[in-house]
Amino acid sequence: MQTHLRGRDMITTQEWTKDEIDTVLDVALELKRRRALGEPHALLRDKVLAMLFFFSSTRTRASFEAGMAQLGGHAQFIESKSTQIAHGDTATEMGEILGRYNDGLAIRQVDWEQGNRYIRDVAAASRVPVHNMQCDQFHPFQVLADLLTIIEHKGDPRGLTIDVSWAYAKSYQKPLSVPQSLILLMTRYGMNVRLTHPPEFKLRPEMLDQAQANARAAGGTFEMLDDFDAGFRDADIVYPKSWGCMLTTPDPEESARIGERYANWIADEQRMALAKDDAMYLHCLPADRGIEVTDAVIDGPRSAVFDEAENRMHVQKAVLALTM
Ligand code: CP
């Protein structure tokens, strides 16, 4: 267990050692147990987390806010549109100023080629830890919750096969942050990670190289497929979700048109039947129901999406309690 995490930023899990991530998972389970028992755990009494959102959210906002209250502190919700950012407040000013009012900052900024840069610029100017509530490249708290859910349902993740797959959606061109974060984290836990997507829906090459290096170091595998059904075959965990083809075209309309070629990439019962009998279905949510996944799958017995959403709060509380 690592005990010197005070002041650390969580921008990507890749910047935390495996020992440090194990500590987060351990503390998350302890805080989950304490909440289940009704034991108070006001570890952040009088502390304040500023949550700056440039994009909508259901789970992230609600779980950070509830988590801070359970830890005895407060979370202030700041929507970028309601600030003076559009009138000139820079990332450096936001880091300096919000860092003087608060004990921690959390930011969601998913604009392509801007979000991660913005969060890192705020972090460089902040005297308190800065946490990534999702950027264009990473969604670290989502994948920490995913890993905790896998461990709770399946035990030791080493040797398990997870299919991180693209699926069709219509709602919007979703960021690359979830699949990139999944391949980076799950390969560090000795899993056999499949990345499945149509050729146009590439992830960043440096993320693929890092995932390959992680897999080599941890004794797992990392392979890439372009066949939706093949990704499901004999998998222990399936995680089919949509993302945009930003690396093929910067135009969201063209990206949507390309996606339509693969409208049959929907997680349905036929696909689930290809996976192992006890295969688990995960999705970070929100999902495009009836397009990305059928109701029978997402509401079915093999879906763990509600445990997964709940675990967001427990892993976030662990990181906040360890770093703030
Ligand atoms: N999974 C996730 O981050 O959900 P929200 O976008 O609703 O916060």
What can you see in these coordinates?
With 324 residues, the protein is an alpha/beta fold. It has two domains: 13-139 and 311-323, 3-Layer(aba) Sandwich (Rossmann fold), CATH 3.40.50.1370; 142-308, Aspartate/ornithine carbamoyltransferase (Rossmann fold, 3-Layer(aba) Sandwich). Helix content is 41%, strand content 15%. It has twelve helices and nine strands. Strands 7-6-5-8-9 form a five-stranded parallel beta sheet. Strands 2-1-3-4 form a four-stranded parallel beta sheet, sandwiched between helices. Helix 7 links the parallel strand 6 and strand 7 (221-225). The longest helix is centred in the first third of the chain and has 20 residues, at 18-37. It is globular, with a radius of gyration of 19 Å. The mean pLDDT is 97. Bound molecules: phosphoric acid mono(formamide)ester (CP). The site of phosphoric acid mono(formamide)ester has 8 residues, from helix 2.
What proportion of the residues form beta strands (DSSP E)?
5-15%
DSSP helix fraction: 40-55%
* Count of runs of 4 or more consecutive helical residues: 12
Largest sheet: 5 strands, parallel
Q: Order of strands across the biggest sheet?
A: 7-6-5-8-9
What would the average pLDDT be, to the nearest integer?
97
- Under CATH, the topology of the largest domain can be stated as Rossmann fold
Measured distance between first and last alpha carbons: 17 Å
| Uncertain stretches of 5 or more adjacent residues | none
CATH superfamily of the largest domain: Aspartate/ornithine carbamoyltransferase
From the spread of the alpha carbons, the general shape counts as: globular
